[in-house]
Amino acid sequence: MTNTTRTFPEDFLWGGAIAANQAEGAWNVDGKGLSTADIAIYRKGVAKSEYKKHNAINEEQIKTAMESTSDREYPKRRGIDFYHRYEEDLALFGEMGLKTLRLSIAWTRIFPNGNETEPNEAGLQFYDRVIDGMLKQGIEPLITLSHYEMPMYLVNHHGGWTDRKVVDYFVHFCKTVFTRYKDKVKYWITFNEIDSIVRHPFTSGGIVPERFENVEQAVYQGLHHQFVASALAVKYCHEIIPGSQIGCMLTKLTTYAHTCNPEDVLVASRDNQFNLMFTDVQVRGAYPYFTKRFFAEKGINLDMLEGDEEILKVHTVDFISFSYYMSLVSSVDGDRLEQVSGNTTGGVKNPYLQTNDWGWQIDPVGLRISLNELYSRYEVPLFIVENGIGAVDTIEADGSIQDDYRIDYFRSHIEQMHEAILDGVELLGYTSWGVIDLISYSSSEMEKRYGFIYVDQDNDGNGTLERKRKKSFSWYKDVIANNGL
């Protein structure tokens, strides 16, 4: 290929991503309320394969966490102290040349309980400073409205997203931040990985399983409320911010059949179909045909208000954003086959793929497949807002961090992104996860590092929080400067 054909579109948004609950810290500063992320515990010594089981939430854990004032066992409370170090971090992001930064606004900074009438001005002022700092660096803000940080008050007093009132509370939050930042922020995302509510009801939906007789009924009712809230967010974003672009977000779980046995193919096909149900509702504006049988067989009866279907139909998203870390494999005999873990879920081991330190399969070609699948189905612009590799980084004797494995991961995935663009896919941009080391969402540990920037902190919270550029920092800086060349 020539240099010309290897470049990306001129306005391509190269960037990075963080989340408030994994970066900010300052969990009890300036009026912030307690969120679901603030009670996520780090269990020292637990095997990586056991994280999902040990992260299950229960009443005792909630009670203990809400009475605790420590951030020792609850690392997301301290994050990487972005709240106090954002100027330093934004300067590093600017040095790297980021065109955009995906970040989230913590609902509990603006409305500590989630249901107040008047917002917390100190929280709004914090994001004023952060957004202004981004713009000063020439970085376009891409803001997620809900990223795994629901107010605990709504969990304990409203059953999380199972209560229809929460739709109104969330819409009030959305209107507040749209109005505040309408002259500064063009790009928005409604719910981070909205499909995660079916795998992690508490983290994604504020649903404590033991509080409900029928957990699946609660989960899909909560999901319906999130769909309605997402559509209403689209409505008010367009009304309040003319020319704005607002998208949904999906955990892209591209799944292959283990064999060409038609039974394996059917299982994989159903898994992919189910994964796309969440974008079907938000892009096409209605529940897809197969959900009628799905809900009937599970005995799920959604409580829809008059007008809900019209809301979903009219207020569809402008683009699809998604996370992609790995692909999965499904089989009718999956329980008898070797398993691997992944982003919020797992599957059968693929013998053709390598895995990272946490057992996630590395499949760059799967990203091209995913991009083509989404674009051919919906024909709306796409935005990759999470992609990266968690790894244990080592500081060399000379102080450097030689993370060639991270460079290899990104290079191979960016190559496949470009192939998808040549295929005809309309791709708005790419924000790596996470641009700087963060507290892990899944395990609340620090040693699972994603960033181009190293943060001096261990799993127990020890360290100086000093920021250090890794080898990949310069590499990604060059990628951006040369527009993917």
TrEMBL record:
EC number(s)? 3.2.1.86
Question: Keyword Transcription: yes or no?
Answer: no
Query: Where are the catalytic residues?
Result: 386 (nucleophile)
Sections of the chain in a coiled coil: none
Q: What is one Pfam family matched by this protein?
A: Glyco_hydro_1
Note the InterPro entries from the entry.
GH, GH_1_N_CS, Glyco_hydro_1, Glyco_hydro_1_AS
For this UniProt record, the keywords arranged alphabetically read as follows: Glycosidase, Hydrolase
What GO molecular function annotation could you give as one example from this UniProt entry? Answer: 6-phospho-beta-glucosidase activity
Which top EC class is named for this enzyme in its record?
hydrolase
Protein family per UniProt:
Belongs to the glycosyl hydrolase 1 family.
Q: What is this protein called?
A: 6-phospho-beta-glucosidase
What species does this protein belong to?
A: Paenibacillus xylanexedens
